[in-house]
Amino acid sequence: MSTKLRRGFVAAVAMLAGLVFAPGASADQPSGMQPYIVGGGEASVTDHPYAVFLVDGNGNQFCGGTLVADDTVLTAAHCAVTDSASQLGVVAGRQDKRGTDGVQVGVSRVWIAPGYEAPTGGGDIAVLKLSETVPYSPAKLADASDSELYAAGTQATVLGWGRLEEGGDKSDTLRSAQVPVVDDATCGEAYTSYDAKTMLCAGYPEGGVDACQGDSGGPLMVGDTVIGVVSWGDGCAKPGKPGVYTRVATYAEAVSQA
Q1: What is the mean pLDDT of the chain?
Q2: By C-alpha distance, which of 23, 16, 1 is closest to 203?
Q3: Which keywords fit this entry according to its UniProt record (predicted)?
């Protein structure tokens, strides 16, 4: 199995070793969809003000994130574990990566879930404390009271600036796609390392709609609540291989205290 990290430059290295992290696919997929986010369309930061992206020291986007407070960003651990806070930047309020709108701020502190080793082992979640507040509306964190948001078939929205197809170019603009939550039994059949306590899957049985490289760390939303963090999967949008996301509700208390 070729597992996919959905991080930018990490994904490029990982692909050489057959390893790539971030989600896959699963319910009846709308017909006629083209391979964007993969399988979605352009989205507006006005509609999704909590959607942010991470940049390296050279200003290159490599992961996504979710604003959960005016000074706090939720992302994937594999997006933050190899970099010190001083090497990370967060861009908020910017629709097009080539633009200058919105704000870019530094990161003062990084929290990574205790025990994290690799996305397939769970705990692929991190918190970035920003060096200053940003003037955008945050998303709500799913918690233990939000079990209905994780019910199989729930329509969720994944957002990111990642590749438009597996191995293809990244999007310059924010994109979104609708994917249904997949039941744990189906996800466990697709991935032997799937852990229902710390992960969830979303996608279509026939594939075609998914997050891809560069989308890692971005949000899986139900309404204005973030229920998942883009983590890993087998390729991008493959049939029978739904995307795997970190289950936010499991870590909500720790994230709030980070």
Answers
A1: 84
A2: 23
A3: Disulfide bond, Secreted
Beta-sheet strands, E only, within the chain: 3-5, 41-42, 51-55, 61-69, 72-75, 89-92, 103-112, 126-130, 140-141, 155-160, 175-182, 199-202, 219-222, 225-234, 243-247
Catalytic residues: 78, 124, 216
Please state the φ and ψ torsions of residue 47, each to the nearest 5 degrees: -80, -25
CB-based contacts of 61, cutoff 8 Å, min separation 6: 8, 53, 54, 55, 91, 97, 161, 170, 214
Instruction: Determine the 3-state secondary structure of 189 from DSSP.
Output: helix
| CA-based nearest residue to 8, from 238, 221, 254, 216 | 216
Interatomic CA distance for residues 134 and 89, integer angstroms: 13
Instruction: Retrieve residue 249's tokens.
Output: 């509700």
For position 5, what pLDDT does the model report? 60
For the chain, state the CA radius of gyration. Answer: 16
Position 25 pLDDT exceeds 60 = no
* Contact of 169 with 203, CB cutoff 8 Å: no
- Residues contacting 208, CB < 8 A, separation 6+: 25, 29, 33, 35, 38, 39, 237
All structural domains of the chain, each given as residue ranges with its CATH number in brackets, are 45-257 (2.40.10.10)
Global pTM? Answer: 0.85
- Residue 148 scores a pLDDT above 50: yes
Going by their DSSP bridges, the two strands 51-55 and 61-69 should be labelled as: antiparallel
Rounded CA separation 188/179 (Å): 18
Apex 93 CA angle, 92 and 94, nearest 5 = 95
CA angle 147, 153, 154 (to 5 degrees): 50
